[in-house]
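Our collaborator T.R. sent over the components below with a one-line note: 'Predict the complex.' Nothing else. No constraints on interfaces, no templates requested, no preferences about which chain binds where. So this is a plain run: every listed entity goes in together, and whatever single assembly comes back becomes the starting point for the next discussion.
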Amino acid sequence: MRVSDYIQIAHREITRQRIRSALTVLALAISTVILVTLAAISLGGRQAITTKLAPDDALANIIVTSNKMSANISFFGSVQEANDKTAKLDDNSVAELLNIPGVKNASPRAGVWELQKFNIEGIDKTFVAQAQGVSDSGQSITLSAGKSFSAPTAREVILGQAYLKDLGLAKTENIIGKKITFTTQNGYRGDGAVVPGVRATQSQYDDFNKTPAKLTATVVGITGAGSDENKLLIPLEWARQVRTAQISPTEKKDYLAEDGYSSILVNTVSPAAVKQVGTAISQLGYGQVSTGAIIEKLTQFSTIMWLILGSVALVALLAASLGIVNTMLMTVSEQRYIIGIWRAVGARRRVIAGIFLVQAAFMGILGGTIGAAAGWYASAMVNERIAAILQTQNLPVVDLAAAPLWLCVGSVILATVFAILAGLYPAWRAARQDPSKILHSI
Amino acid sequence: MGPVIVLSKVSKTFRVGRERIRAVADVDLSVQKGEILAIVGPSGSGKTTLAHLIGGLSRPDEGSVSAGGQMLRTRDKILSKYRNQKIGFVFQTFGLLPHYSALENVSMPLVVAGMRRRRRRELALKTLAAVGLEKQAKQRAETLSGGQRQRVAIARALVTSPQVIIADEPTGSLDSENGEQIMQLLERLSRIQDITVIFVTHDLTLAKRADRIVHMRDGQLTEADHAR
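Returned assembly:
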């Protein structure tokens, strides 16, 4: 028998039992919608993780710390191993890192604990200053607006974009050029401090030790999204000046040199070089973590989520397939007469089985296609709703659900395979019917 | 001319619950080409089972069935091909698919044979014309009268130019006028196309129109008459 005849017969039988076929197709369509939507959310989540955590060339970066880290990175950090490098990261470390093949640039970063709070001109809000001194010689800062520091000691600030969101400022030009006033820790003795002279009284010293100083700077840029988005960056050499204390009228102490840098941002030649450079850094005894490694962890997590959600969808598909088994078995017992006639005119068992399998496949394709289309639409609606919510919160819009063509086509194929598998037993039963017994009764 | 069908010591047993019923027992029968054979007997005598054994719808438990000098093997492929090409069945309740048109019903054996759509349409229309139903070709089977349905069934049995037509109570669901027309049609086909017609009936008057009558009782052939 010709394939076109199988299809025509299947089509006629399905349309003859409209309501039953429609309900079976609906069950398949619903389970395919669940499959596509859950898979789209899982895939979209993975894509959002990658695009959010890896803007531009961040995948080529490695953050180097003094302590060697355990290989088991979790979302909350990792175990750190004490070693001879724990003392500090200094310019020797920078030179050592720059010697590793594949390293393009090594940019030290220093925590500036002396700057504790800050206010922005014209804004009645005080923030905790998570200030970091940054060397921007290798363009280690990703900017979303403005420019980088004009000089290594300039009193300038690059503000993390998270502060803008917190203040509800949509336009960056409203903040660039504004003055920032830092409040230091009490008894601050660094750049700009007015330290009591040798003739000062004990009470003047006591007052000095209880009073913070005020330092001003100008906002010149806004960071992009990523690890710097909640920080406040200042030029490294100015950070060194802030951290250099006038401990006596004749003596200064460089605490940055004493404590070392808090981290060094290593920029590799390409994301492909990260693994090799990371191994070399670890062999030198430093700790290192890359954006790629964090993404890998998150991707592993999202893969587990995908497996869980996928299993739920597969159970739904299985339930719908049982519906097909039921429908087809009912059809087989109702169509005994038709089976008998086809057998009498010479149809082989495999032809009878084929007619029923094509019916099952037909329902699978129909249910799968309707479900995939509805799932694609549902994913688009999820994105639209999420985008609307994120926009009202002044947050960047991300597509939470991604239903690519391969997912939609794959779901149709999967639904069809499930339907055919569900049709196997009824088709076998139909093929095993004894035509003589059937035709005896008509 | 040699026999077209030969049954040798054919037996068939059915299991009904725990009981085994021998529907056909040690039947020897040969049917000549172009012959009209009537199988008569009371209900449950094994007439239909015998017809199904001859037509390859059922396999004998013992003995053999030969068609055109070749013993029928019991493989599904062989028996299906035999039913498709050598045999045409006509049933008491017509055996038509009610939601199919007359043309589609007649085309069924050709669909199974894998014939191209255009060719099978031509053949089916020609055969419908031979039974006087070319105007009803597109009509659904369920809308036709009883006599018309049986003629569609005969057209379907004829469309592959079989050697044998097996008709099980062909007039059983028809009034006497339509029954007469169907019998005349079967007789005409047998004479003109030299087709063997085996029909099952419990009506002795009808059976007398056959060339030969075989009687069945309790699964056995009890006697054979030459009606004409």
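Summary for T.R.: The interface with chain A takes residues 48-49, 52, 55, 57-58, 76-77, 80-85, 89, 91-93, 95-97, 99, 108-109, 111-114, 117, 156, 168 of chain B (CB under 8 Å).
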